[in-house]
Amino acid sequence: MIRALFRLLLLVIVLVAVAGFFLGWWSNEVTIPDSSAVATAGRAGAERAKEVGSEISNKTAAAAKQAKEAISDGALTTKIKAKMALDDTVKALNLNVDTTNGVVTVSGLVRSKAERERALALARETDGVRQVIDRTTLEAGR
């Protein structure tokens, strides 16, 4: 019984000594973190993070602008095609409308000069159109 108690006491002492050694309880060195090294690394890291954040922000803004222009061009094309489809003098199925940066290109076959002028006028009077390019051709025999 005494022998078991002695072993247990010896085991507890060894465990406390090992724990004290690994946790630094009996170390003569006082370790104070070097604040300048941490701050320098922190500043450099913060500057790099700002640069990367700025770069990502610029790329996102450019992508958003490009998407807005593409949507805007698509909306212009849709508006013009809808106007042509609703107009009785224009056969919209024979005409193609392409828009790039507000410049509208109308191409395809028209039955008459009046249809050509009406199709181009519908494109010109649409808000957001900067220029209209005529690539239409008159059907043969008309």
pLDDT under 50 segments (min length 5)?
none
Radius of gyration: 39 Å
Estimate the mean pLDDT confidence.
83
* Strands, total number: 3
Strand content: 15-25%
Which structural class is indicated by helix and strand composition?
alpha+beta
Question: What name does the CATH topology carry?
Answer: GMP Synthetase, Chain A, domain 3
Spatial order of strands in the largest sheet: 1-2-3
Percent helix: 55-70%
What is the ordering of alpha helices and beta strands? HHEEHE
| Count of the separate structural domains | 1
Our count of helices gives 3
CATH level-1 class: Alpha Beta
Question: What is the approximate shape?
Answer: rod-shaped
Distance between the termini: 122 Å
Major beta sheet, specifics?
A: 3 strands, mixed
Indicate the CATH architecture: 2-Layer Sandwich
Structure, described:
The protein has 142 residues and is of the alpha+beta class. The protein has a single domain (36-138), classed as 2-Layer Sandwich (GMP Synthetase, Chain A, domain 3). Helix content is 61%, strand content 15%. It is built from three helices and three strands. It has a three-stranded mixed beta sheet with strand order 1-2-3.
List descriptors.
3 strands, about 60% helix, rod-shaped, three-stranded mixed β-sheet, about 15% strand, GMP Synthetase, Chain A, domain 3, about 140 residues, alpha+beta
Helix and strand arrangement:
Elements: H1 2-23, H2 35-86, E1 95-100, E2 103-110, H3 113-124, E3 131-138
Parallel strand pairs: 2-3
Antiparallel strand pairs: 1-2
